[in-house]
């Protein structure tokens, strides 16, 4: 077996491993869950964190015991109505537990429900959502009785017919009957940022010590396809250091002695903490100053918690204090999050979007794509323009590659003669070949550089298309109504001409349900391949013949936006290669190569230059 065959086999095996690995780590999007039954057994209430360092033993409420007494099903509520959000706040515990996003629907159907971010414990209208909510409170210290501070079972009061809007903040109040009056003033902006000011007024004759806290509680994790390319779980910023903890890793943390809860704690001067999904996020953001962030898992209740614990405050007799924190609950829209980072001073908030290892590519790539989308008004055309710009940037390398390929074709007869002359002496053949390359100033590896450069670009664009919400339900043309989802058309029903449904994403037969875009992808790769004559070796020719169609099936279930990029990239590459090789006297005999492939004859070589 000669060295070319060996290299081909190695390359084929490596390509297969890459494809298998890609399919494993980056599977296609699963079908939307249809089981809307509420999860009745997940009704635990999060434990209120004890104030540190002066905690009392009874301050930490038992999660399982408090569940039945803290159900929100029949609690009075305050309506939330903003341009971006709709929902309610429960006066039982003063918790944020009912929140939907006005700008986003679950599906493209006209009657599709809004995306629901937060859902209450014990609610009867949970849909597919599991209990997911945010609570605030105070932990007693210095001997203060836990019953004298508000907790998950506290029933707050509010003005009659109060509605929380960007123009009308709402103040909740609770008097403990022993000289302490607690207030909670809640305001919200036009997007997704709440401000919560917790106040306490001491009308007793002695000072009191207590510490404010905030908790995001999630009962179970959302139904989705956990993939390696995307982080879902806890995310926090601690002193400008980002930390991401997946749900499965939370369950593996060492249990805290005596509590039976997995916990990870970090002190911070500036930062935030919360839970992030693919497109949505809920985050606690204390104002500047020291605080402790905690992520915790309670196995018995399948309860995930993210907490902020502020330092103990002392309130003198006749005095009052206010602790202000912020809550982000909404979609991870880049412009909105960037504004919160720049204008509201939330440290590195844009890094709550999972930019990945190639962040130095994904960030500028997304910003350019975002600008193109704003200028053009269609994300599909923006992707095509971005591809054109990327190809223009790497064109100098591509040009050298195609010139080198043209020169290699010129040397092909001489190399074949050299192989015949040095048959049986591979060392001599290698020496003569290297001398030939040096004499003719040809670099055989020049064709690999653009390919190697394109690998991180491809991964980065995949990351941008997969994780950024700007492609969520973004239409292109005709039947492509969601560039973040696979092409919905299918060859199995002749692209809608036959009256039957096709396999859904996630089905083992879905990869055979090729749409128009995947087929165009395979055709574009096939045309690009036909720029060069097929290898004379039958095994090589067979492998090359199958390669476009293998990629067509492998990439066919990917997001339409990514397939669109790949089609555009192939088309531009075809034009560049054809033009450059023609300019250097080696015009590809495209149609002769196609005919030779169909006739199963030796591929036609280029016609001699006239």
UniProtKB/TrEMBL annotation:
Cross-referenced Gene3D superfamilies: 2.70.98.90
InterPro entries: Membr_insert_YidC (IPR019998), Membr_insert_YidC_N (IPR028053), YidC/ALB3/OXA1/COX18 (IPR001708), YidC/Oxa/ALB_C (IPR028055), YidC_ALB_C (IPR047196), YidC_periplasmic_sf (IPR038221)
Entry's Gene Ontology molecular function annotations: membrane insertase activity
Domain of life: Bacteria
Entry-linked Pfam families: 60KD_IMP (PF02096), YidC_periplas (PF14849)
Chaperone in keyword set: yes
Entry annotated with the keyword Transmembrane helix: yes
CDD domains: 5TM_YidC_Alb3, EcYidC-like_peri
Residue ranges annotated for the Membrane insertase YidC N-terminal domain, each copy included: 77-367
Membrane-spanning intervals of the chain: 7-25, 379-398, 508-527, 548-567
Record domain Membrane insertase YidC/Oxa/ALB C-terminal: where: 379-581
Cellular component annotations (GO), alphabetically ordered: plasma membrane
Subcellular location: Cell inner membrane; Cell membrane
Membrane association type: Multi-pass membrane protein
Description of how the protein assembles with itself and partners: Interacts with the Sec translocase complex via SecD. Specifically interacts with transmembrane segments of nascent integral membrane proteins during membrane integration.
Known role: Required for the insertion and/or proper folding and/or complex formation of integral membrane proteins into the membrane. Involved in integration of membrane proteins that insert both dependently and independently of the Sec translocase complex, as well as at least some lipoproteins. Aids folding of multispanning membrane proteins.
Name this protein carries in UniProt: Membrane protein insertase YidC
Organism from which the protein derives: Paenirhodobacter ferrireducens
């Amino acid at each position: 077996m000669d060295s070319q065959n060996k290299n081909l086999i190695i390359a084929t095996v490596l390509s297969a491993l890459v494809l298998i690995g890609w399919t494993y780590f980056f599977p296609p999007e699963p079908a939307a869950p249809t089981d809307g039954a509420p999860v009745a057994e997940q009704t635990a209430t999060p434990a209120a964190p004890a104030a540190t360092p002066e905690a009392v033993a009874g301050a930490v409420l038992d999660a399982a015991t408090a569940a039945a007494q803290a159900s929100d099903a029949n609690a009075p509520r305050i309506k939330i109505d903003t341009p971006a959000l709709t929902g309610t706040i429960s006066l039982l515990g003063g918790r944020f537990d009912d929140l939907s996003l006005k700008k986003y629907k679950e599906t493209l159907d006209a009657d599709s429900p809004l995306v629901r971010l937060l859902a209450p414990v014990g609610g009867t209208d949970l849909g597919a959502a599991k209990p997911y909510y945010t609570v605030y409170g105070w932990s007693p210290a210095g001997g203060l009785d836990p019953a004298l501070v508000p907790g998950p079972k506290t029933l707050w009061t509010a003005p009659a017919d109060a509605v929380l809007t960007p123009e009308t903040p709402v103040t909740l109040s609770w008097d403990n009957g022993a000289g302490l009056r607690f207030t909670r003033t809640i305001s919200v902006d036009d997007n997704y940022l709440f401000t919560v000011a917790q106040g306490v007024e001491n009308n007793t004759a002695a000072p009191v010590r207590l510490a404010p806290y905030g908790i995001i509680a999630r009962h179970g994790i959302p139904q989705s396809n956990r993939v390696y390319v995307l982080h879902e779980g806890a995310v926090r910023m601690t002193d400008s250091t980002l930390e991401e903890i997946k749900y499965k890793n939370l369950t593996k943390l060492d249990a805290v002695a005596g509590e039976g809860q997995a916990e990870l704690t970090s002190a911070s001067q500036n930062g935030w903490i919360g839970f992030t999904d693919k497109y949505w996020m809920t985050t606690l953001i204390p104002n500047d100053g020291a605080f402790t962030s905690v992520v915790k898992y309670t196995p018995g209740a399948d309860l995930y918690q993210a907490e902020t614990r502020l330092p103990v405050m002392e309130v003198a007799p006749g005095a009052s204090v206010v602790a202000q924190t912020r809550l982000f609950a909404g979609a991870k829209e880049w412009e909105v999050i960037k504004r919160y980072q720049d204008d509201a001073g939330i440290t590195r908030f844009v890094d709550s979007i999972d930019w990945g290892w190639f962040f130095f590519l994904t960030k500028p790539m997304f910003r350019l794509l975002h600008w193109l989308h704003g200028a053009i008004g269609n994300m599909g055309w923006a992707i095509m323009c971005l591809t054109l710009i990327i190809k223009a940037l790497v064109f100098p390398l591509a040009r050298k590659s195609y010139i080198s390929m043209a020169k290699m074709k010129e040397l092909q007869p001489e190399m074949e003669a050299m192989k015949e002359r040095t048959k049986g002496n591979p060392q001599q053949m290698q020496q003569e070949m290297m001398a030939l390359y040096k004499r003719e100033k040809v670099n055989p590896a020049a064709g690999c550089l653009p390919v190697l450069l394109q690998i991180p670009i491809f991964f980065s664009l995949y990351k941008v298309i997969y994780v950024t919400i700007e492609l969520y339900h973004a239409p292109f043309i005709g039947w492509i109504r969601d560039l973040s989802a696979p092409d919905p058309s299918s060859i199995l029903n002749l692209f809608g001409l036959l009256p039957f449904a096709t396999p859904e994403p996630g089905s083992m037969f879905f990869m055979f349900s090729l749409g128009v875009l995947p087929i165009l992808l395979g055709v574009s790769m096939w045309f690009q391949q036909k720029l060069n004559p097929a290898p004379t070796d039958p095994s090589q020719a067979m492998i090359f013949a199958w390669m476009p169609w293998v990629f067509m099936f492998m990439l066919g279930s990917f997001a339409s936006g990514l397939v669109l990029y790949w089609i555009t990239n192939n088309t531009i590459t075809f034009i560049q290669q054809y033009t450059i090789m023609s300019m250097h006297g080696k015009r590809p005999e495209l149609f002769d190569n196609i005919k030779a492939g169909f006739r199963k004859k030796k591929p036609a070589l280029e016609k001699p230059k006239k």
